[in-house]
Structures are given as structure tokens and as C-alpha cells.
């Protein structure tokens, strides 16, 4: 399984996700950002979702950073089900 790394930052109501070596996408929630990043990799790299993983580092400076990290962990555990 091939791993892909991505970073996301907040722009107004959107998470803008940059997947290293692939491109960028966006989503309104961390869950949607994760799904959109996976869709981006699948389409651009022409591989099925079973053949890769995408790890996103959600960059949120300031006091909201811990809340975002918790949301990311919750999202990851729900997507794993």
C-alpha cells in the first residue's frame, strides 16, 4: 500500500488540502477533506483506494489547533470502519 502525505489549512469555510506530488483539493469538514484527498489521489494516480493511504496534517495555528487534531483523529477512526 502506497502512502501519500498531505497538508491542509483553513481558508474561510474550506479546508484546502495539498497532496504532495499530486495536487490540491478542498472540503468543508475534515471528513470531506479526507475523502476529497483520497478521490484526488485515485483519479490523478489512476489507482484504486485499496492501493494507497492518505495522511493529512491539518494545520491550525492558535487555540483551535488541539480541537482540529481531535476532530482529525475522530475522522480517521470513523473512516477506518
Q: What descriptors fit this protein?
A:
2 helices; 81 residues; four-stranded mixed beta sheet; 4 strands; alpha+beta; single chain
Description:
This protein is an alpha+beta fold. The chain contains 2 helices and 4 strands. A 4-stranded mixed beta sheet has the order 3-2-1-4. The mean pLDDT is 89.
Largest β-sheet summary: 4 strands, mixed
Terminal Cα span: 18 Å
Helices and strands, in order, run as EEEHEH
| Contiguous uncertain segments of 5+ residues | none
Helix share bin? 25-40%
Give a short synopsis of this structure.
Helices cover 38% and strands 36% of the residues.
Question: Could you give the topology of this structure?
Answer:
Blueprint: E1 2-11, E2 14-19, E3 23-27, H1 30-45, E4 52-59, H2 65-79
Parallel strand pairs: 1-4
Antiparallel strand pairs: 1-2, 2-3
Amino acid at each position: 500500500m502506497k502512502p501519500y502525505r498531505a497538508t491542509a489549512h483553513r481558508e474561510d469555510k474550506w479546508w484546502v488540502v495539498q497532496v504532495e506530488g499530486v495536487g490540491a483539493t478542498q472540503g468543508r469538514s475534515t471528513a470531506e477533506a479526507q475523502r476529497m484527498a483520497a478521490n484526488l489521489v485515485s483519479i490523478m494516480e489512476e489507482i484504486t483506494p485499496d492501493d494507497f493511504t492518505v495522511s493529512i496534517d491539518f494545520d491550525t495555528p492558535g487555540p483551535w489547533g488541539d480541537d482540529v487534531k481531535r476532530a482529525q483523529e475522530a475522522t480517521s477512526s470513523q473512516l477506518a470502519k
